[in-house]
Specification:
single chain, 273 residues, alpha/beta, Rossmann fold, five-stranded mixed beta barrel, globular, binds hypoxanthine
Length: 273
């Protein structure tokens, strides 16, 4: 067993006794969905800092706990706070929380985030259903000895985001009057925002939105054969596409403004899967 694999199963042993009911749906709460867990019933909270070997977030506005609970009679595990590669953790540590949720029982993963808009038809406040991603600018979380108990050495990535889930998000969008767009999410290492030249390049490569998380989590989840849905909240137009300077406060402000719509979309999605 590799060190990381040992750490993972050790972490699992430490949380197993705290889980009353196995979760089936895992949800990563990005900016804009931070209060989502308020709608869960029968909550159990597990702080990341109480899990041995677990990465703990250092970013302002990012909490650090799992919140387990029930919504529409479905068992959910939500991550309030995620860790980012730019915090200095090795990439396999960044995806450890996702792997642990799979070990706890989750078969579906819903990833959400705040992102900068590259597609010129987007505005701050647009919700983008992720239909594919580009991870080529960050190391793969699958590098190193393969953890055979999780998945295969060379996993296929042709359909990371489940097609039925993408369709369902669009159905909900038209039925509930919540406008969504579709697009490709590109992950950078961060923590700096991009230069206008980089944004031009990412656009030419096919990216519609850019951010500092998510794609590596989706990749680790796909390796474990989870069904994945992803939604980005476009909090700002990316560098060079608007006159406004980028800053974290602005990102948080737009994310808060859109949170009611975002919450409604995700709640309805959970209801229907
Ligand atoms: N770039 C990278 N990450 C982001 C952005 C951005 O413009 N907005 C929110 N997260």
């Amino acid at each position: 067993m590799t060190k990381h694999e040992k750490e993972l199963y050790n972490a699992y042993d430490s949380v197993e006794s705290k889980i009353k009911t196995k979760p089936s749906i895992a949800l990563v709460l990005g900016s804009g969905l931070g209060d989502f867990a308020d709608c869960l019933e029968d909550k159990t909270i597990i702080e990341y800092k109480d899990i041995p070997g677990f990465p703990v977030s250092t970013v302002s506005g990012h909490d650090g706990k799992y919140i387990l609970g029930k919504l529409y009679d479905k068992q959910i595990i939500a991550m309030k706070g995620r860790v980012h590669f730019y915090e200095g953790y090795p990439i396999e540590k960044v995806v450890m929380p996702i792997r642990l949720m799979k070990l706890m029982g989750a078969k579906t993963l819903i990833v959400t985030n705040a992102a900068g808009g590259i597609n010129k038809s987007f505005n701050p406040g647009t919700l983008m259903v992720i239909n594919d991603h580009i991870t080529s600018f960050v190391p793969s979380p699958l590098i190193g000895t393969n953890i055979e108990s999780l998945g295969t050495r060379f996993p296929d990535m042709s359909n990371v985001y489940d097609e039925d889930y993408i369709k369902l998000l669009h159905d909900i969008s038209s039925e509930c009057g919540i406008e969504v767009k579709d697009g490709v999410y590109l992950q950078t290492t961060g923590p700096n925002y991009e230069t206008p030249a980089e944004i031009k390049m990412f656009g030419a490569l096919g990216a519609d939105a850019v951010g500092m998380s998510t794609a590596c989590e989706a990749m680790a989840a796909k390796h474990m054969d989870m069904r994945i849905a992803g939604v980005s909240c476009i909090t700002n137009m990316a560098a060079g596409l608007s006159a406004t300077k980028l800053n974290h406060e602005e990102v948080k402000k737009t994310a808060d403004m859109i949170s009611d719509k975002f919450t409604k979309l995700i709640k309805e999605f959970i209801k229907r899967i």
